[in-house]
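Known limitations

Files may contain more than one protein. Parsers should not assume a single record per file. Below, a two-record file is shown to illustrate correct handling: read the sequence, read the token line, then continue until end of file.
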Amino acid sequence: MDQALINVAPGETRVALMDGEHLVELAVMRAGGGGVVGDIYAGRIEKVVPAIQAAFVSIGLERSGFLALAEARPYGAAAGEGERITDYVSEGDEVLVQAQQDPFGDKGAKLTTRLTVAGRYLVYTPGQPDIRVSRRIGSDEERVRLSALIGELAAEGEGFILRTGAAGAETAALERDVAYLRATWAEIEGKRSSAAPPARLYREQVPLRRVLRDETRADVRRVVIDDAGALADARALCERLAPEVADLLELHRGPAALFETHGVEEQIESALAPRIDLAGGGSVVIEETAALTAIDVNTGGRAGDAGPEETARLTNLEAAAEIARQIRLRGIGGLLVIDFVSMRRPHYGTEVLDVLRAALAGDRVPVHVAGFTRFGLVEMTRERRHASLSQVLLEGCPACDAVGRGRSAETVALEALRRVLAEARARPGARLRLTAAPAVIEALRGVARAALAEVEERLGQVLDLDADGELGRGRFDVAVARVAGEEEAGNG
């Protein structure tokens, strides 16, 4: 990944991580929604269920969070025989918790009482006084250096985890990270003293902070933002978090939108399609379900003089690398089952697994490949932290009882608003009309009403909305209703 593109639009911020002009990962964060992993809450124990050794915690979301016994146990306390969740929490208790996993389906967010706050090089673990080093830092000498340095900086009761990016970091950079984390924790504690549960005290999924903190390593050469206000915020954040990143920031200029300039919109569409065509003629089909994600590999019309066994091998090797890329791009988590093209030679299967594992090595989300089952399928898991791209952008089709999936009304509504702003730049002063399916217009007046209000504020006038039942949900039209100084057609 060598550049990050940040598109800031009413109601939605999108972050595209790019390898050249190829989309590697996409994060979509919407106003009033998005992931909650890493968020810290002042919660209240709503219900304790001894039968499953867990508690449900009200944290202000639609569904209560889930706190298991192991995550309720205080730091340093050993698990004992006869231990019960009721040893640590009771109904009505106030509790400080952090989300480990997003809500999924009918399940609430998974919670823990062991809090962490991430910085650029360090993770702060208040109340957990250990110094730990990422296993990905392989040099023993560097591990010793970092441990000793942070051990000197840590105060009583403080703990730190040295992230992979800390390798080679100078003392001044680590000291700055410690100061930033302490200040952040002080802000959290200040909010806690005045907040009435349930209340969110800390928001982890802030797009600018995430990109500047986690995505700007040595190989990143630029961070392009298409909003001047967001750019100013990014520069201010760099002063506290990463001054060396400030020189990477730049404002997108040009007539075309940022994502269109770099071909990101087309790649997003491809990432939502179930079928991916391989360069060699084969294909991969990805189907997400509630229980698991099924991936099927086909040779298709692969050309060449190789026999069936060699054709299967070549297709599977190409598919293995593409599957690893697609899993990260689509943000797929949970259990995955891959049906590669059948091969008789065992060492071919080993070769395919090696390629798959190597391609997954750069994924920051924990992945485990179990290997081939007795039925010839490959089982693997990828930790589910957030909703996948399709879960964010698509929804079940009401016409087929959710058998098919298409872009949600909210997704189309926000896309239409981006088009309105682009048209307004091309036709300054024009009164614009947006025509879309009734569900999209309803979304603009409902879940996306704040985004609509922001667009109208930028326009300096009301945006005309027109519901057309003949239009499919994914289609809309932006047209000029009236130009400043002229009467609308038909009025004289």
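...continuing to the second record:
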Amino acid sequence: MTPERIDWISHPAGPLHGELTVPGDKSISHRAIMLAALAEGVSRIDGFLEGEDTRATAAIFGAMGVRIETPSASRRIVHGAGLHGLAAPAGVLDCGNSGTGMRLLAGLLAGQRFDSVLVGDASLSQRPMRRVIEPLAAMGARIEAEPGGLPPLRIAGGAALSGIACTPPVASAQVKSAILLAGLYADDVTEVREVHPTRDYTERMLAAFGWPIEFAPGWARLSGGHRLHATDVVVPADFSSAAFFLVAATLVPGSALVLRGVGLNPRRTGLLAVLRRMGADIVEQNRREQGGELVADLVVRYARLRGIDVPVEHVADMIDEFPALFVAAAAAEGITMVRGAAELRVKESDRIAVMADGLRRLGIAVEETPDGAVIEGGALRGGEVASHGDHRIAMSFAVAALVARGAVRIGDCANVATSFPGFVELANGCGFRLAPA
């Protein structure tokens, strides 16, 4: 179902203040539901993201016979069916807007006894799946897609999977995770090496659910034939959601925000390192481990930023945060150069093209390159931009308006609900001036 169109208008604002807790980590929420559904026993998940993407994943497992209770918001109790206990669904399995859900489920469903079909919304239906289909096919999976490797994905049941050793040409945690999840059902050993290390949420969570797995940055190895055991999961606050407030408080003079319990997985926090290199004042307090993940409270204060050449080694660790970084670069003094980020062209939108177009409309000089952009910081003006249905683009331009010379109208913002329900209310609570257009 196509969501009703929502446009925003975001106005320049004064200093931002307050203590915020952003929603739970989307990547961890997806994986917690998946592994809890395949585990033996009852798992409890606290901090679950109440977003459309993660709810879609939960609904998919409900359609395959897994009982999932919701005793209160952000809590799930999952009665695991076991590795081979899923039931054939009566219809297609709708991933909504979630590329994470579709790619990980492709690996997981490749090992089932029954046929399945994965579909998505208009945006997801244009996202490439060949990069995950090809390694899964090498394991013995039988997956058909539309021309160009696009969804829907039709997955044949009963395939005999074999472990492989592979190095995907593009560093992608989603592709790596799909291969590892298929490896749960494979004979022999499955090993993935990466051209650049990506986030290791799947590896950490497999270990938490008791599956023998070896992993290090850029490498993971497991064998099939084991069992997952129910466990309780506490989902940390999503760093990608916190990123918008980190940039906002950095850019607006006089601001000081505290973001509570933010997940700081080292394969996820490239933006933190880059913002600090640009001159940001972000301090970590109360560092602790929560469910196998490092979390901390982040205290961010206004600071003047300078443009930099973004180190390529941070790119894979901040792929979801680039729209927010583009806004920081637009408001910084000097030139910021981004390279090695071709993956941005196949996210929910072509994020390089969409951010470049929007920033130009707001008076910023941006030169696109095949794998990045050159952004010359300057004075942002008001105007009208399009998010192209990309939740992170919409929220990033809401941040840009805070330091613009006039209001910014942002088109097509309904998909913000996929990752950050309540964004408008939380943003306005700390000083944004954001409203429906």
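Parsers that stop after the first record will miss the second one. For reference, the second record is described as follows. The longest strand covers residues 281-290.
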